[in-house]
Write a structure and sequence with these properties.
single chain, 16 strands, disordered N terminus
Length: 502
């Protein structure tokens, strides 16, 4: 403190009061883990707009500095779509965002969240921590999806509830047979490079066949061990319906933890598998003959903050789920078409929405009905009573997927919406159809007052621009190659675009 009583040398985090008490108290534990495990490098990561982890690797002195001042990070990734095609020109006034803070591709500040710190079991002497993004004035970066999700959770908390949610995630596992890289395979901005050549790890459609899992027990054991060492609440690993398709499930988690877990889980699985000669992809449907579409079912319930009880458990007069639960579901159904941009954000994901396919094709709800978009699970006196949204794809940004559910559900609560009758024939009900393609979903999002009001028009327009860049490149490929049945087949464009990055 100087003679005028002004505190000097306050770091960025302290100056703008960006950590709560729990986060501040976790710093001491991080120091202890660094010393105990002999960590030398820390990956400082954040989720981009596509739900993909971006990171810088810091030495310990640099990391300790970041725990005080944050770390400068190039805004560059914000300007790119899924293939790193430039969507916004950062060198025009406002950087294409009509925002002085975005002019010239400047740095912003990543602030580590001490509650997310991990020691990576597969990477020697390496730690990992997740960040939130801020402008230099201490305000949240408006295009940071984790901040969007935290804001939605805060609004839910303000009416007395927290979200309890669980992950049920399908993905495809393949064995790498040729990982050669040469100049002809590198690609370019907007034109992804060739992924490794792979082969399936199982043959035939044999749902939950024990023998399939036994055939890949070596890599499953490695994945399970590493995931458990990360303290992620893994419950089950299953052989799924399609060849080389797996499903992992996790115990329910509160608040932002579910989205953080999904980001780390996908990142971990891909890195672990690659180190052992496999390629895991969370792309919905790879362009490999015989492969089946994968989904991501997000299990959800509301917890009363004051009592800690499940707010979905009904009174005798409520029906199969409480009134607040019905309103929350009704909001999700009401906003389902616009929300598919967040639950199913790739061109590829819409080829999953087929009648009688175990994926929904319309916005309905039912009791333990795997054909409906919203499947209510559990009985009236069951503390675990909840529902799952079956519309999601495993490549979705977890923060935007979760935020879309919260904001849609809040809309249902605020307007006291009703979900309508339960479904008995999921694929024949008179319910609004889900979008048939990503462009139709984007068109619905453009008209959504809920998402414009709750997420902010700047952010919604930003996501729309990202998705339309992706769609335009896809349609150019389809037209140039005269592909007439592109709505029903997985094109080579999709495989190049999504297979390796997701």
């Amino acid at each position: 403190m100087n003679s005028q009583g002004i505190v000097k040398n306050r770091g960025f985090i302290d100056r703008f009061n960006l950590w709560n008490t729990e986060q501040s108290e976790a710093v001491e534990k991080i120091h202890a883990v660094i010393k105990e495990k002999g960590l030398r490098l820390i990956r400082v990561a954040w989720s981009d707009q596509h739900g993909i982890s971006r990171a810088k690797t810091l030495t310990i002195p640099a990391f300790l500095g970041a725990m005080k001042n944050g770390i400068d990070f190039n805004t560059g990734p914000l300007f790119f779509d899924t293939a790193n095609a430039i969507v916004y020109n950062p060198f025009m006034k406002g950087g294409g965002f009509d925002s002085d803070e975005m002019t010239g591709c400047p740095n912003y500040t990543l602030v580590p969240d001490p509650l997310t710190f991990k020691s990576l079991p597969w990477a020697e002497h390496t730690g990992w921590i997740l960040c939130d993004a801020y402008l230099k004035n201490g305000n949240p970066l408006p295009y940071d999806s984790r901040q969007i999700c935290k804001k939605a959770l805060k609004e839910l908390n303000s009416i007395g509830y927290d979200l309890l949610s669980g992950l049920e995630v399908e993905f495809s596992l393949t064995k790498i047979v040729d990982d050669e890289i040469d100049a002809s395979l590198l690609g370019a901005p907007g034109s992804p490079g060739q992924p490794p050549k792979v082969v399936p790890v199982a043959r035939g459609y044999q749902y939950q066949l024990e023998a399939h899992n036994d055939e890949i027990d070596d890599i499953l054991q490695i994945i399970a061990e590493n995931i458990q060492q990360l303290d992620l609440p893994l419950l089950t690993m299953e052989d799924e319906w399609g060849p080389s398709q797996l499903e992992f499930t996790f115990a329910p988690m509160k608040g932002i933890d579910t989205a953080d877990t999904m980001l780390l889980f996908r990142t971990a699985v891909k890195q672990i598998c690659k180190r052992h000669g496999y390629l895991a992809t969370f792309m919905c449907r790879p362009s490999i003959p015989g492969f089946f579409s994968s989904g991501w079912h997000l299990h959800q319930s509301l917890i009363d903050i004051n009592t800690g009880e499940n707010a979905f458990i009904p009174n005798n007069s409520d029906g199969p789920i409480s009134e607040i639960g019905q309103q929350f579901i009704a909001g999700i159904l009401e906003n389902a078409r616009a929300a598919t941009v967040f639950t199913t954000p790739t061109v590829n994901g819409y080829k999953r929405f087929k009648p009688n396919s175990l994926a929904p094709d319309r916005a309905g709800w039912g009791l333990d009905n795997r054909g409906t978009m919203i499947r209510v699970i559990g009985g009236i006196e069951d503390d675990s009573l909840h529902f799952e949204n079956r519309a999601g794809e495993p490549a979705a940004n977890p923060y935007l997927y979760m935020a879309s559910q919260i904001l849609s559900g809040l809309d249902g609560i605020e307007r006291k919406l009703q979900p309508g009758p339960l479904s008995t024939e999921a694929y024949n009900d008179n319910r609004p159809l889900l979008p048939k393609d990503l462009q139709s979903a984007v068109d619905s999002l453009k008209e959504s007052e809920v998402f414009h009001n709750k997420m902010g028009t700047d952010f919604v327009n930003y996501i729309i621009s990202m998705k339309e860049s992706e769609i335009n490149r896809y349609m150019t490929y389809v037209q140039e190659n005269n592909i007439e049945a592109y709505a029903n087949i997985v094109t080579e464009w999709e495989h190049l675009e999504y297979f390796e990055i997701f």
